[in-house]
Amino acid sequence: MAYTAHRPHPNPPAEELRARIPGWGVDLDPADRPSTPMMRFDPEASGAHWELPDRQPEERPREHSIEHAGVTPVFGTAQPLHGVSGAIRRYSYERFSEARAAHWLLLIAADRVEFAESRLTALLQGHPDNPISETGIRAELKYGGIRSRTGRNARRVDTAHTWIDPFLVAAPWLGGAALALGANAVVRRSARRLRRR
Asked: What is the spatial distance between Cα 175 and Cα 44, in angstroms, rounded to a whole number?
């Protein structure tokens, strides 16, 4: 049956539903609802002794939506903002409402920048990523990854995007290598020009 603007038939009366469906309407009477005491403000019953709970001390400023006057009484401090990604996030929260696409696009950009920051930090600390083991290439070769994607036994759900996986995995590494080679070439040219002078 197609959806129509008007209701095709009225709802059956409550008595008929109660007779036909066991337990129907059991919470219609507020006296029978277990949640009803919580729906009333009764400080004596709940033990609440405040209008607003005590605020957690804010040792460093936390970001919050411009729609709100401040952060909630309790908030997380495990991942403080840092670096360029933190500056992007701070700007997003200070400048744009959560209803604006710019707010969310800046937060997505900050995630990408933080990824690059973490890779660069790992490289500078002497613990660079290992693309062979971390991308699963070794496991694919060791446990029959190609065989599981082809032939009669190919039941893997990732076969539809298998063709693009090497590009997605290799592109950041190739881009980083190209950037490093380009920077190296620029430094060498600059050094040659300085020597000629």
From this structure: 65
How does DSSP classify residue 13? P
How far is C-alpha 96 from the geometric centre of its chain's CA atoms? 19
The Cα 89–Cα 85 span in angstroms is: 6
Instruction: For residue 128, give every residue at least 6 positions away whose Cβ sits within 8 Å of its Cβ, in sequence order, or none.
Output: 119, 122
Q: What is the pTM of this model?
A: 0.53
Structure tokens at 65: 């939506």
- Per DSSP, helices labelled H in 21-67 are 36-39, 43-46
The CA distance from 113 to 90, in Å, is: 14
Taking the C-alpha atoms of residue 138 and residue 133, their distance in angstroms, rounded to an integer, is 6
pLDDT in tens, 184-195: 899 999 988 888
Per the CB < 8 A criterion, the answer to whether 129 and 137 are in contact is no
Tell me how far CA of residue 110 lies from CA of 84, 97, 172, in angstroms: 8, 16, 17
Tens digits of residue pLDDT in 55-64? 888 888 888 8
C-alpha distances in Å from residue 122, one per residue of 81, 96, 127, 171? 18, 32, 5, 19
- 54: how many CB neighbours lie within 10 A of its CB? 8
